[in-house]
Amino acid sequence: MAKKMAAERAVEFVEDGMMVGLGTGSTAYWAIQRLGERVREGLKIQAVGTSERTEALAQAAQIPIVDFSRVAQLDVAIDGADEVSRDFALTKGGGGALLREKLVASAASRFIVIVDDTKLVRYLGKFPLPVEVVPFAWQLTKKRVEAAGCRSTLRMHEDQPFVTDNHNYILDCDFGEISDPASVHGYLKALPGVVETGLFINMAYVVVASDGQQVALHYPDAG
Length: 223
Ligand SMILES: O=C[C@H](O)[C@H](O)[C@H](O)COP(=O)(O)O
Description:
The protein is α/β, with parallel strands linked by helices. 27% of the residues lie in helices and 27% in strands. It has helices at residues 2-11, 26-40, 52-60, 98-106, 138-146, 181-189, and strands at 19-22, 46-49, 74-79, 83-84, 90-91, 108-116, 129-133, 151-154, 156-157, 160-161, 169-174, 194-197, 199-200, 206-210, 215-218.
């Protein structure tokens, strides 16, 4: 219920004529459902998805999907997160969609993050940080990632490595408390073989959080 409430509040930011980025996961699911209702009631929008799953859900909800390569700018993107720190850094990628999610969020004028309020934390790090890596020599990349100060696990799916929509692997990295997300991201991103990290820093326009009873809007700019 908390995820649904946050998602439905976020959909209120969407207006006629907008180009919308659609996130991935169990919270974004509710945003897609609500947006689909509004489209069926007459709202005119176009959307890009952050995963094949999301594109299929959007199409089922009758939301017009366009190819992201044909879109220069999005008005809003709405997506979940695995953790949100007090300084509005996010961990994302629990569902493996972090790369497309970051591309879509980075193209949006307003990136709206939707969470149940158990995901609001002081520091990131309880949730292992997903890092997308190319399959080639992933074992070497894993060693180099661990030199950043974490223990990492190759994400699996039914006895096989989990493969992202971009045909890459995911290392789930336990750093403990991440007090300086920017330097962790910078270090990892500079490694050959690392495609993207699940750290989203200075990207959120607003975090819409719910405890299942009420919805609160947290704006980074509010200080
Ligand atoms: O890759 C998945 C995404 O980053 C999700 O937005 C994130 O894992 C949150 O998912 P959920 O809303 O299912 O908790």
